Amino acid sequence: MDDVLIEKIKSGNDHAFRLLVEKYRNYIFHTVYGVLRNEKDAEDAAQEVFMKIYTSLPQYEKQGFKTWITRIAVNHAIDIKRKKIRRQEEMNVEYEETSHAPPGVSVEFLVLRKEQQQLLRERLDDLPENYRGVVEGFYIEDRTYEELAQELDVKVKTVEVRLYRARQWMKKHWKEDDFS
């Protein structure tokens, strides 16, 4: 049954694709929901999965259709989850930078922060000289932008720019695993 539909889809029959979507809609939704654990995200992801299935059908070689679409669905859901986690981490970094010491800090947060500070201390000499002072002051000594600007006799904006460029440099030159 699936193979007949697939051949019709490959030859341009859109109705056959709608039948395939109807047949597997709930299955794909539950598959991506199992990874994402969010109904709205799972609905969006399921639609995206069907688009991927449609565009990937020319590469399908009768190796078990349900297994093939499951692999596409799971991989897509994992990608979405990773992006969401990355976005959350970026938001946390921005939060840390704006408030430096969030109220009700968890022990886990403090331990991770200490580990990152230790890694930074060990790698500080690798940084270009013009970034070292602001990175050390902000991340290791917990100084604010204003304190650093006063100490270095520069504007606060200069401190912000140096920290931004230092982070870009670290992302480019150091493994992400070292600081995630």
Annotated CATH homologous superfamily of the largest domain: RNA polymerase sigma factor, region 2, helix turn helix motif
Question: What count of domains describes the coordinates?
Answer: 2
CATH class (first level) name of the largest domain: Mainly Alpha
> Given the helix and strand composition, which structural class is it?
mainly alpha
> pLDDT below 50 for ≥5 consecutive residues: which ranges?
none
Number of DSSP-assigned strands: 0
The residue-averaged pLDDT reads 83
Just name the CATH architecture of the largest domain: Orthogonal Bundle
Taken from the alpha-carbon principal axes, the silhouette is elongated
- Spatial gap, N to C terminus: 47 Å
Question: Count of helical segments?
Answer: 8
User: What's the Cα radius of gyration?
Assistant: 24 Å
Largest sheet: none
Helix content: over 70%
**CATH T-level fold name of the largest domain:** Rna Polymerase Sigma Factor, Chain: A
Spell the H/E element sequence.
HHHHHHHH
What proportion of the residues form beta strands (DSSP E)? Answer: under 5%
Protein name: Sigma-70 family RNA polymerase sigma factor
GO molecular function: DNA binding; sigma factor activity
Family: Belongs to the sigma-70 factor family. ECF subfamily.
Keywords: Sigma factor, Transcription, Transcription regulation
